[in-house]
Design brief:
The chain has helices at residues 51-68, 82-91, 104-109, 156-167; strands spanning 19-22, 27-29, 39-44, 72-77, 98-100, 114-115, 127-128, 131-135, 141-146. The protein has 180 residues and is of the alpha+beta class. The protein is globular. InterPro entries: AhpC/TSA (IPR000866), Thioredoxin-like_sf (IPR036249), Thioredoxin_domain (IPR013766).
Length: 180
C-alpha cells in the first residue's frame, strides 16, 4: 500500500490566491469573479492533447448562459503553453476566458492529480487532470470536483441546474461536505 498522499482542498475553505496569464498577457486572479458576477467557476482541463477536454469546453460554451443567468462567471485553464493554447483555440469555437501556463506548484496547491505525458506526441510537460471549482461570493469553495481521468467530470447541465437551485435564496442551501 502506498503512503503517498496528495493534499486536497475542502469545501467551504477559501479558494487559493493564484494568478494566471491570459493570451493577451493580462494577469488575473483565478478565483475572482468578473463581468458583473459574484461567483466564479474554474474549469481545469488537461490541455490541447485531450479530445475529451475539447468536447467538455465545447459543451461549456453551449450552456455558458445558464451559468451567467445565476451569476456564475467562468474561466478555464490548463498547463499548456501560450503556443499550445493558441493552437487549441483554432480547433475550439468558444467565447469565455481561457488562461494558460498552470504550473505544477499551482496544480498541487489546487489538489489536482498530475500526470506525465505518455509520449512526446501527447504533450511536452506534466499536466493537470480535470478539476472544477465553484467559488461563492465570500471567496470560499462552494463545490469542487477533482478527477484523475478525463472520463469522470461533472455533467455541466446538471451542475448549472444545481447552481440555480443553490443560488435561489428560498432554498437556503449551504456548502455541503463540511464534516471532517
Amino acid at each position: 500500500m502506498s503512503t503517498d498522499y496528495t493534499q486536497k482542498l475542502h469545501a467551504g475553505v477559501k479558494f487559493p490566491e493564484i494568478d494566471v496569464t491570459m493570451l493577451n498577457g493580462e494577469v488575473k486572479s483565478l478565483g475572482t469573479p468578473e463581468n458583473g458576477h459574484d461567483w466564479k467557476m474554474v474549469v481545469v482541463y488537461r490541455g490541447k492533447h485531450c479530445p475529451k477536454c475539447t468536447q467538455y469546453l465545447t459543451q461549456l460554451e453551449s450552456i455558458k448562459e445558464s451559468f451567467a443567468k445565476v451569476g456564475v462567471d467562468i474561466i478555464a485553464i490548463s498547463g499548456d503553453s501560450k503556443e499550445q493554447l493558441n493552437a487549441h483555440l483554432e480547433e475550439l469555437d468558444i467565447n469565455f476566458p481561457i488562461a494558460y501556463g498552470l504550473t505544477v506548484e499551482q496544480m498541487n496547491t489546487l489538489g489536482l492529480y498530475i500526470s506525465d505525458p505518455r509520449s512526446e506526441k501527447e504533450t511536452d510537460h506534466p499536466f493537470a487532470e480535470p478539476g472544477l471549482f465553484v467559488i461563492n461570493a465570500e471567496g470560499n469553495i462552494q463545490i469542487l470536483d477533482i478527477s484523475n481521468a478525463p472520463f469522470a467530470r461533472p455533467d455541466l447541465e446538471v451542475l448549472a441546474g444545481g447552481l440555480a437551485f443553490i443560488r435561489n435564496p428560498e432554498n437556503n442551501y449551504p456548502v455541503r461536505g463540511m464534516h471532517r
